Amino acid sequence: MIDKLALYFEYPFVKYALLVGVLIALCSSLLGVTLVLKRFSFIGDGLSHVAFGAMAVAAVLNITNQMLIVLPITVVAAVLLLRGSQNAKIKGDASLAMISVGALAIGYLLLNVFSTSTNIAGDVCTTLFGSTSILTLNITDVWLCIGMSVVVLGMFTFFYHKIFAVTFDENFAKATGIKADRYNLMIAIITATVIVLAMKLVGSLLISALIIFPAISAMRVFKSFRLVMIASAVIAVVCALAGMLISILAATPVGATIVAVNIVVFAIFSVISAIVLKL
Amino acid sequence: MSQLKCSDVSLGYEGRTIIKHLNFEVNAGDYLCIVGENGTGKSTLIKTLLGLRQPLEGNIEFGEELKPTEIGYLPQQTMVQRDFPASVWEVVLSGNLNKSGFRPFYSKEEKERAEANMCKLGIEDFKKRCYRDLSGGQQQRVLLARALCATGKMLLLDEPVAGLDPKITVEMYELIQKLNEEGITIIMVSHDMAAACNYADHILHIAHKPLFFGTKEEYLKTETGKAFTELVKMEALGDDEDDR
Ligand SMILES: Nc1ncnc2c1ncn2[C@@H]1O[C@H](COP(=O)(O)OP(=O)(O)O)[C@@H](O)[C@H]1O
Ligand SMILES: [Mg+2]
User: Which of B119, B57, B132, B61 is nearest to B91 (CA)?
Assistant: First the structure.
């Protein structure tokens, strides 16, 4: 087994995949804590569907660099969804469900009608659940991920206390002069970016698992915001690494394996919290 | 000039006016109680004073020594907070953010200030505890300590005793009175008339039509005030009977 792993590690694309996987899991988990606590976790899910739709459009238009289309569309959707959820007039969750299912349907329709590929079902499956495309990362993707991680980590270090205040009590934060709307916007845009990059790793259906699971696992056991943040990041990195190694060794799909490991960790943490409560 | 002055303020949502022509002013050291039934716009008024909303008409002026971001605020409790993983220390410290500007960490002074306010409110032992595991009264003290970190001048309290049991309610009122005696201006929303009459020195009564603003003594002479004092007396009698 060790031999097998050692052999794989000779290939640069395996190293890239591991690095990118860990970075994406790390960023998603940090964002996840705020998104879950602000009751915005559904935004991650909605955005991933929008990204799928955008990906389909890019595929149909035969654009080589799909990022150029997918990223702007998803960012715009993120900003609109955030506005919608803050506007008391429109029922936030209904309009979101509409957009996300709509994007999914249109995307699939477009792929089916216009795609020149002979293996449409396979293409769709790949976009939805991620695939071996994690192994086809090029050096640009890797640098993109590193850049994004630096931005996300920088944001969470520099604005940590303000993000806490805005997440805990937006009205109080605003009253003391924090521009809460700007932080919400920043978080929405970064969420959109992380989601688009993460699609390569786990596909658009599974990305919200990377956002939600580490955060809710950490919240089972830890009781301060700082510890939840740190624990969430550690859980995400460990799960991503374990998931990717298992998927290499057992030849299972990468995205689904990472999510499965996350589910196991969540179960373990739930048991721990139940035991701690009893004591 | 007074610390806070509202001239001819009207409040509302999306064109629907809730309160019209509101006039009142608050001087340093005052204890103003805003009373009125549910849904008359008390919370809306508080949010407008804090600058979270804009008034439909009229204007709100602050005295020279008070910046709008220097007001301490105790919100009406919301559901989101109740299961939030945050330690008491983190919550109290976050009251300091109006002073920190772009600085990404808390200064030594800010930490000392948070400690001092926790001691003042008797919650220093809860520092490491999780906010969501505290009782309602303890949570209110934590939020009050946070508000005190944000201000030394004026506190806006939106129904600070809602949901607390009678004993804790009295403790809370006395704590607020103590802060007022130390020189902090208090603006408190309540629909507990008895407490308003007991502790406040000014009353603003908001209702759909008649509005009253003045000192407590004047208020007790008005028709609505009389009706309420009757009510308070009856409640007091009722309480006595319960005690026996
Ligand atoms: N975000 C909002 N959008 C529209 N109407 C609102 C909003 N918040 C409160 N209202 C309405 O404004 C009125 C006053 O509400 P509020 O200020 O919370 O009253 P109070 O605090 O006195 O109970 C109510 O009729 C309420 O329905
Ligand atoms: Mg209210």
Answer: B132
Predicted-complex ipTM score: 0.84
Residue A162 touches chain B, beta carbons under 8 Å: yes
CATH superfamily of A2-278: ABC transporter involved in vitamin B12 uptake, BtuC (1.10.3470.10)
pLDDT, tens digit, 9 for 90 and up, residues A146-195 = 999 999 999 999 999 999 999 999 889 999 888 988 998 898 899 999 98
Distance CA A176, CA A170 (A): 10
pLDDT in tens, B142-161: 999 999 999 989 999 999 98
Q: Is the CB of B60 under 6 A from ligand 1?
A: no
Q: Are A175 and B52 in contact (CB under 8 A)?
A: yes
In DSSP terms, B158 is beta-bridged to: B189
* Type and span of the H or E element at A253: none
Residue B38 CB less than 6 A away from ligand 1:
yes
CB A127 within 8 A of CB A203: yes
Q: Which two tokens stand for residue B68?
A: 């709008």
How far does residue A31's CA lie from ligand 1's centre (Å)? Answer: 32
Nearest-CB residue to A223 (from B87, B93, B98): B87
Over the range B92-111, which residues count as b (16 or more CB within 10 Å of their CB) and which as e?
Answer: bbbbbbbbbeeeeebeeebe
Q: Is the CB of B162 under 6 A from ligand 1?
A: no
Which atom of ligand 1 is least distant from the CA of B40? 22
Sequence length of chain A is 279
One-letter amino acid at A71 equals L
From start to end of B106-244, where are the E strands?
154-158, 185-189, 202-205, 212-215
Strand partners, B73: B156
* Domain chopping of chain A, boundaries: 2-278
